[in-house]
Amino acid sequence: MTDTSSAPQAASNANADAGAQAPMNNASAASAAAAAAPVAPVASPASANGKKPWETLPVTVKVNGESHGPMDVPAGLMMIDFLHETLGLTGSRLGCGQGICHACVVIVDHADGTSETVRTCITGANYFDGKTVRTVEGHATRDTDGKVTLAPIQQAFLDHFSFQCGYCTPGFVNAATVLIERLKRNPIARADLEAAITEGLNDQICRCTGYVRYYEAVRDVVLRTPGCIKDSK
Ligand code: FES
Ligand code: FES
């Protein structure tokens, strides 16, 4: 049976109303039908915290040992933009912007001595209110003469040529740091180290390398960091 649904009919009517001479194809018919359909009201945008993006929320945060705030920030402001634009800390990288690549992670230090990585591209600045954060800028030290000393994991990534473009490196530095600190608190057997590194770096995406040199660098640092390994086998 021939389809007598309303789209072709609407298209025919629209065609006639417009005085067009050429026959309308299916795409045009669908377009005309869509144009004739009532338009649903567009919902007001709201961020995950239920606030409209332009409403403000308070932030007081300690980053790399320095306190910032209290200040009000837009509810829709992601932490990576807060770091880049408000604090001038541009080392954290915006990769996918969708919570997948983990290039943008920072470290959140908890009062119980544990730490974790948090993705700043999908986490609002207000989430970090009252928290203590480390970014990639917080790892190296600079003495009074201005001489910079990299953290062991940063130096190891350089020594192992772990990265090419380096876009993913800040995320790897932070993820590896969290892993090494966890192993210091909870040492593991040598036989379990490869699995621990895989788990600790598993979320980090690198588009340039095969990950092997990142993993080798982390293994080196773990093996020469006292207290990470329970046995020497
Ligand atoms: S940029 Fe944040 S997860 Fe990719
Ligand atoms: S070194 Fe280029 S994305 Fe990892």
Give your account of this protein's structure.
This protein is of the alpha+beta class. It has 2 domains: 56-138, Beta-grasp domain (Ubiquitin-like (UB roll), Roll); 141-224, DNA polymerase, domain 1, CATH 1.10.150. 34% of the residues lie in helices and 15% in strands. The chain is built from 7 helices and 7 strands; from the N terminus they run ααββαβββββαααα. The strands form 2 sheets. Strands 2-1-5-3-4 form a 5-stranded mixed β-sheet, with helices on one face. A hairpin with a 5-residue loop joins β3 (105-109) and β4. The N and C termini lie far apart (77 Å). Residues 1-36 have low confidence and may be disordered. It binds FE2/S2 (inorganic) cluster (2 copies). Residues 94-97, 99-104, 119, 121 line the site of one FE2/S2 (inorganic) cluster (FES).
Q: Helix content range of the residues, please?
A: 25-40%
What percent strand?
Answer: 5-15%
Q: Can you identify the CATH superfamily of the largest domain? A: [2Fe-2S]-binding domain
Number of separate structural domains: 2
Helix and strand content put the structural class at alpha+beta
The topology string of helices and strands comes to: HHEEHEEEEEHHHH
Number of helices in the DSSP assignment? 7
- The first-level CATH class of the largest domain is given as Mainly Alpha
CATH fold naming of the largest domain:
DNA polymerase, domain 1
Shape: globular
Poorly predicted ranges: 1-36
